Amino acid sequence: MNDTFDLRISESHIEVHKFHGGTILLCVIFAVVLQAFLPVYITKASILDLPLLITIYFGLSRRNPSTGLLLGTFIGLLQDSLSKTPIGLFGIAKTVIGYLASSIGARLDTEHPLARFALTAAFFALHQGIVVLVQKLLLAQAQPWFTTRLLVACIVNAILGVFLYHFLDRLRKS
Amino acid sequence: MAGLPSRHRSLFLLALVVLLQVLMLAVQIKSDSQGRLIRVWTVSAVSPVERSGAWSIGKFRDAWRHYFALSDTARQNEELIRENGRLKLEITQLQSKSAEADRLASLLNFKQKQAKVPMILARVIGSGADANSAVVYLDQGLHEGIRKNMGVITPEGVVGKVIESFGDTSQVLLLTDRDSGVGAMIADSRIHGQVGGMGEPLLDMKHVGADEEVKIGDRVVTSGMDRIFPKDLPVGIVSQVKPGASFKQIRVRPSANIERLEEVIVLLTTDPLSLKLDVPAASGNATATPPAIAQPVSGLINTKPAEKHP
């Protein structure tokens, strides 16, 4: 959870962003608490996956696969702890997403809103796929691969992600 | 790790972390421990924030309603005066029916029976962080006598059951969750089945034979067979019936407003409750109000916690 690291220019000249101390931890806690708190007052808010958006954003920004996957693990386990799911279900999914986001972030420029929309939608679908796969293979739970609700959730989260990332960009060290 | 090429290190770390979590899942499934310690830590850390958030929103909402949102108050006042007159007339009519109600009251004698059942009011302070599961957190827990598998209801009907209990917080699996289920029956015909969630607002009633007669609008009540809920608590209303090969496909609209829960009642016992009725079960008393909702809520609440088990 080290929030500062060196500005490095990779082979593809992609910038690695720095954040003020404690920013990532605060964002993670805020997202997880909000995820648990918001649906009580706004039922439709349960469609959001704020912890996933935070995992994707910091993965794409930090561009370090090791820290990305560990951040994903941490966020996933927190989310598991506040859910009725076995501990590790979201942990595994967000670990993979954190790793992939960091790896992609290190190779592509992910600052454009359209790129962010597409990546968030793809990561959401992949995240859901991993969760269902683990539920089917390891937990022997029958879960649908695809529902209309998931499609709506995918689009809504991707749109929210674009705006959320724009806001989080302001927390970067200039 | 040190001997690996640097570009493979993160891949190795990914495999290691995923493997550890898979093992953790496997251990939980085998021991059914559900990783309790990490849940206790996280819930203990998060619930004060949720509690203070719920308190702040409640205060803000009260302030807004009582001091700022008064533009319609005069009009509402006039409407209330008119409604008051209408209600006075209705009261006169109802008084004539109260004699009949008195006779039924002596037959049911329900209030005294329910007073013996320990119950506690709890406030919903949070929901699960997983969009696919329907769970909520209550502001009462072990310290108030809440234990795993205790039933949770509202005056309108069944809500769910406690699946985890922490110090001052408890986690409730709602009836709409895919993993939930309650023993139920059709109130009039006493046809038994099992009502469970489907991850959507409507519930699914299973194991009702294809040759049984079930109509849209039939009331569904608890059967008491699950040994969690007392018999005849309202579960919902049949909203859809389709024929099936062996069993009917029945959809039930929950009686309790599960999507808008604010306060609930927790039945402070895991022992089978004996809230049996004195009225004949399958007689033509179909229109009678279910006993659980026939009494005012205040009459149901016993704020004393149940005896705590070591």
Beta-strand percentage range of chain B = 15-25%
Taking pLDDT < 50 over at least 5 consecutive residues as the criterion, the unreliable ranges of chain B are: 106-111, 276-310
Kindly state the mean pLDDT of chain B as a whole number? 76
Question: Taking Cα atoms only, what radius of gyration of chain B do you get, to the nearest Å?
Answer: 24 Å
Proportion of residues in helical segments of chain B? 25-40%
How far apart are the first and last residues' alpha carbons of chain B, in Å? 47 Å
Characterise the protein shown here.
The complex is a heterodimer of chains A (174) and B (310). Chain A is mainly alpha-helical and 174 residues long. Chain A is built from 6 helices and no strands. In chain A, helix 2 runs antiparallel to helix 3 and helix 4 packs antiparallel against helix 5. The N terminus of chain A is likely disordered. Chain B is of the alpha+beta class. Chain B folds into 2 domains: 37 residues, no CATH class; 191 residues, Thrombin, subunit H (Beta Barrel), CATH 2.40.10.340.
